[in-house]
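Appendix B. One record, verbatim.
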Amino acid sequence: MDNTDLMTPASKPGAQPLLEDAELIARHNRFVASVRLRGRALRVYVPNTGRLSELALPGSRVLLVPSTGKYPYRIEYIYFRGHPVMINSTRSNALFGELLVNRGVPGLEEYRLVKREPAYGRHRFDFLLAGPGGIEHPLELKSCTLAHGSVASFPDAVSERAARHVELLAEHRGILVFFLLHGGIRRFVPNYHTDFAFYRALKGAFDSLTVLALSVEYDDNLSIKILLPVPITIPDVEPKGSYILAYRNTRCRRISVGALGTIAFDAGYYLYCGSGMGDLFARIERHRRKSPVRHWHVDYLKDGMTMTAHLPVAGDQPGECGLAAGLASLGGKPVPGFGSSDCRCGSHLFHFSENPMERDSFWDFIGEARFGTYRERS
């Protein structure tokens, strides 16, 4: 698509200035990234507090708009599998407001926008609507950038605020809308893998809320031409399952690992697979804490390595062996015998010279482990 095709009429929902095509170099923190624009590296603003782990990968195509803040541009879209995903959460709220006013939100055509950001005690929702009969309802919009195939999910990071919003909405006959910013979505599932508290709050309040999941369809100008309702699945899930822990090892080092003896660990990244069939999330928190107690092989990695990520995969059955097989298929080099003394696997710890979490194939693997059961099959 040529940049000259990206100018949208101001009267159309989603109108925006000319977009600049760039390449993502790295995301440094929640709000700052580096991009390559016309051969020059520069820092830009990231208007999204989510992780964007599967989107904000080095080499990804991004579209920028000028910014008046500290940085000259902000990222408006990140391309995923050749398709744009709008990541500007502020703009998505403004756009949704336009669609409300224009009666363009399926399921809410008979509702009237009364106020933006209404206060309820110490909290604010995104909109206040008046429905049939003049009854007022607060509406909270959750912009969703996480998807695997045809399945979208929210949130992509733990959000105590989001869980509290659900509880408050239920007290006020509220409306919760998941604004699914990938095209081609056919189902929504709450991300119980990442934020079990949000899942539990939504499941408990579901019958007290109006909950909509609306997938966008972009036109050639990247305006949102239509919103499509998609079904919502709220499965019965217990807080148990498997996980991956990611560690960064900055230099070669030798570590004594209990009965395995002293092991030489190369510089790079180590990913470990485990399970927590009592309480998955409590098990992960235990691994994250600094403690002199060494119970599992993985506890010894705290001697010099830094945990960079923890990725739960909730499920009824222990799946760490399947995760280990997946890491091996991604090119991970096994550390013999590590973490696999009670199964037939050769190892549950794998070394990567480069960070595998900066590869599409890694997030495809994680997405399939988490959401593969829900996606449409071709």
